[in-house]
Design brief:
alpha/beta, 19 strands, eight-stranded parallel sheet, nine-stranded mixed sheet, 14 helices
Amino acid sequence: MSSRTVIRGGLVVTASDEIHADVLIEDGRVAALAASGTAAADAFTADRTVDATGKYVIPGGVDGHTHMEMPFGGTYASDTFETGTRAAAWGGTTTVVDFAIQSVGGSLREGLDAWHAKAEGNCAIDYGFHMIVSDVHPETLKEMDLLVEEGVTSFKQFMAYPGVFYSDDGQILRAMQRAADNGGLIMMHAENGIAIDVLVEQALARGETDPRYHGEVRKALLEAEATHRAIRLAQVAGAPLYVVHVSAEEAVAELTRARDAGLNVFGETCPQYLFLSTDNLAEPGFEGAKYVCSTPLRPREHQAALWRGLRTNDLQVVSTDHCPFCFTGQKELGRGDFSKIPNGLPGVENRMDLLHQAVVDGHISRRRWIEIACATPARMFGLYPKKGTIAPGADADIVVYDPHAEQVVSAATHHMNVDYSAYEGRRLTGRVETVFSRGEAVITEREYTGHAGHGVYTPRSTCQYLT
């Protein structure tokens, strides 16, 4: 049976436009938009009407960097695909692109199949996959071609974590060369892991074991050096490059230089680098462990460069790198040795609200908010215009957002499966009210009305920014 919903009276905000318009949803897609109060809008008929007067009507967020159920450091990320995607919906995100992992000695296919098994039938919202390439050899390169053909069009490599995910420059170059041929996008964790491991060993030998030393050994210069090296390897290969979780001013400068030279180089940052700092890592006792992630939090002065990069489009995307570990029993694995603290923060539920606060604070415009959180990640990862915008034919992934509501972020009220919030006690202006995923209300006036299994796997085309 056909179902129709009309959202009336809101300010529709996309990456390109702001207009007071009514939105007609039919059979899971946007059927039409018309200026509110016009004859065309008044002619919309529907089974259900949502009053969005005084609210924003925005595209559902696209989070291009999450790690549900990820194995790391002898444990697993605490959010399952069920809990993590439900929390994403609460935060106004309607699509996530998670990372399937190739095990060393295993095939890409085995890794991808394992992640399909974790996610299928469990997700509240739609999802896709990137592929972590941990073991570059001739068969891996052939498999990259096959994955691109079936909609897994991006491949992540690590210059960090020797012995786990690490690829050397030769392996990186080979994968980049393959991506140059098959249209894939290489995503890079850019830190000099070999050098960092030396600094970790030396710090521990000096008795420097507290969480704050995690930030001190993972130096900004080693992020910048790896970013520069990745850019040059991509240039040699003739391949595009997307650098994940950029945290340091010096790394932004490398990306800016490359983009000014006309290279297909892109950068992502995350809310933790925009709103948190080494002050959090240095919190007394073992509290700093809550903020251990890689790349690490930086001194507060780096934040200005990240905001500037987002305004100038030298950074294009804000994703979360959502990879939660509970403080009790998981982060505590690193008591007495910061190198054993599982790396990762919870954040999939907070991203849209934190970035709206950045609008309120004057860091970015409303349309730029939607651009970096919805439209650009959708284009970057081959999901646009199905995702990331409100336009006829697009999936009806739509959020009714109250820009005036006030909230206090807390683990007591969030929906992520983790026992702390990285933003505990932070006051924010703006809050998600109702969320549609392909026309189905998964959050209805601050109540969860979705269900596991609504979300479906979404194959992706190649990056839409390549020149």
